[in-house]
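@channel sequence for tomorrow's demo:
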Amino acid sequence: MSGEKRVRFRDIKPYEIPATWESIRGPYRGVIELPIWVRWQDDRWVDIGDQGGLRMAYQALLAEGTADIQAKLLNCDRLLETWARLSLDIRVSQLWETRFPQLNPEANASHCH
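structure tokens (generated this afternoon):
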């Protein structure tokens, strides 16, 4: 066993991401319904006007959502505003920052389009 590297599911899990930044056009505020496979609870309705709800929903969508669901429910302006406060697996944040450099904290992007 010594010398063997432990492989965790999060290290090999495939993550999805929308193809373009412009396709991320979800609502900026209001209540959204997360699919059951994104949030495994009975109450999947989340108020993204609430900072706690927004963070929970965005973290779940980034980690568990398909590219289509992400584009439908995430909002690029809210994502930019919230990015630094999200608690994400390093692979998720690297994937998103590589595809969308405006999410990199040093990019100083102020809006989507």
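heads up for whoever presents: The beta strands are 31-33, 45-47.
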